[in-house]
């Protein structure tokens, strides 16, 4: 059997209506997982569900819209997944926000709190809701999509970077707490990826050049190039790996 096989596994992927989250959900379905597609917009989620079910059969994917800012929404996401598929083996905390661009001296308290709420506390909530059943079954993989921003300083996305650095520490702490129960927690740290989220950084040719000229691979990444890391972390291929941050950035941070 392939080490990457996910047959019989159930995965929730937040922010999976497009971008990195969609690619992760699609590739997990390719490996045999049942996947839960979630974002704020029901219609966008349903479109992804129809595409996945069209390829892999009805019942492979379901849509459960949820705003990561809302604890009630996240509880519903977990409850509906349990109702539909009976369990959760893999949790991918992928959705995040970056509502402020500029130096940290200019950020309002409200903006700073929003970033910490959506990028750190909401991950903590969702993990609190899902981890107990994983601990009981002594099996589970939790994946947080962080960013190489959490490894570096920045004059413009410092607030976001603080939140992404906190995600690395969240994974390390929880890896220690959950390790004795065979529940693993890891981060993926993508570099610049061609999605709506980072559009401002790659659409303008001058910015694109700035972003890629120091990169060993001389280009930005595609969402599918992050999906393989998520399949690896969800599967038997990574059963001895926990608490780590997997950098996937075309070599930028080296
Ligand atoms: N793109 C990059 O260069 C890059 C680099 C490093 C790290 N990352 C990280 O990768 C992750 C995914 O980003 P992406 O680039 O794939 O972004 P994206 O293409 O803009 O997709 C974001 C997804 O999250 C959903 N979403 C946004 N706000 C949400 C909320 N409050 N509640 C629930 N869902 C929400 C969006 O759908 P709705 O709008 O329908 O809610 C969408 O499905 C983020 O954690 C980001 O920090 C991205």
From TrEMBL:
GO MF entries: cholate 7-alpha-dehydrogenase (NAD+) activity
Signal peptide positions on this chain: none
PANTHER family named among the record's database cross-references: DEHYDROGENASE/REDUCTASE (SDR FAMILY) MEMBER 4, DEHYDROGENASE_REDUCTASE 4
CDD domains in UniProt: SDR_c (cd05233)
Protein name: 7-alpha-hydroxysteroid dehydrogenase
Enzyme's top EC category: oxidoreductase
Record organism: Cupriavidus respiraculi
Family, similarity comment: Belongs to the short-chain dehydrogenases/reductases (SDR) family.
Record bears the keyword Manganese: no
């Amino acid at each position: 059997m392939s080490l990457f096989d996910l047959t019989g596994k159930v995965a929730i992927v937040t922010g999976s209506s497009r971008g990195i989250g969609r690619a992760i959900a699609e590739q997990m379905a390719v490996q045999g997982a049942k996947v839960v597609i979630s974002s704020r917009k029901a219609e966008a989620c349903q479109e992804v569900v129809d595409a996945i079910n069209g390829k892999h059969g009805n019942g492979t994917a379901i849509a459960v819209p949820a705003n990561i800012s809302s604890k009630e929404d996240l509880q519903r996401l977990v409850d509906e997944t349990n109702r539909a598929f009976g369990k959760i083996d893999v949790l991918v905390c992928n959705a995040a926000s970056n509502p402020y661009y500029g130096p940290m001296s200019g950020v309002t308290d409200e903006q700073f709190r929003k970033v910490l709420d959506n990028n750190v506390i909401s991950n903590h909530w969702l993990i609190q809701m899902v981890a107990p059943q994983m601990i009981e079954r002594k099996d589970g993989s939790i994946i947080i999509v962080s960013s190489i921003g959490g490894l570096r300083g920045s004059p413009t996305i410092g607030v976001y970077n603080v939140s992404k650095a906190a995600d690395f520490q969240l994974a390390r702490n929880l890896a220690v707490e959950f390790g004795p129960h065979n529940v693993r927690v890891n981060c993926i740290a993508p570099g610049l990826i061609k999605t709506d989220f980072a559009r401002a950084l790659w659409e303008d040719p001058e910015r694109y050049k700035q972003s890629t000229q120091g990169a060993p691979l001389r280009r930005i990444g595609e969402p599918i190039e992050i999906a393989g890391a998520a399949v690896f972390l969800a599967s038997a291929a990574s059963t001895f790996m926990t608490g780590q941050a997997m950098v996937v950035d075309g070599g930028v941070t080296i």
